[in-house]
Amino acid sequence: MTSNEISNLAIGCSIEIHKALGPGLLESVYQECLFYKLTKAGLYVEKEKVLPVVFESVKLECGYRIDLLIERKVVIEIKSVEILNDIHLAQTLTYLRLGDYRLGLLINFNVTMLKDGIRRVVNNF
How far is the C-alpha of 121 from the C-alpha of 110, rounded, in Å? Predict the structure, then answer.
């Protein structure tokens, strides 16, 4: 499956979850539901994937964790906030760069229409 196909499936699952549960829940609820839906769809999904930082040739475990990593290709960063801001985008871009991933989705479930809460993030290397 390509990264685009994976992201399209993740967006579809996210929309289903949002339609069923609506906005206003904790990020962890949406994360668990999306993990369940994607795994049920047959995808390999890692939850809370540890992402080390390499500084001066030393691998440091700094507590970075990707919410969901799908098929070792697509990063999903889940939010449930009033509004997405630049720091959320920066966080997602950092995960893409540190993990050498190309595509990520920043999904804010705390919106009326989920399509308004989805940002596609691309690492141009």
Answer: 19
| Bridge partners, residue 78, by sequence | 107
Delimit the domains of the chain by residue range: 3-122
Cα gap 104→92, rounded to integer Å: 7
* pLDDT value of position 18: 98
pLDDT band at 66 (very low <50, low <70, confident <90, very high): very high
Question: What is the token pair recorded at 105?
Answer: 């989705």
How far apart are the C-alpha atoms of 7 and 110, rounded to whole Å?
A: 20
Write the CA distances from 9 to 41, 42, 65, 107, 120, integer angstroms: 9, 11, 22, 13, 13
Q: Which residues does residue 77 pair with via DSSP β-bridges, in sequence order?
A: 106
Is residue 111 scored above 90 in pLDDT? yes
User: Cα separation of 72 and 98, whole Å?
Assistant: 13
CATH of 3-122, one of 1.10.150, 3.40.50, 1.10.20, 3.40.1350: 3.40.1350
* pLDDT reading at 49 higher than 90: yes
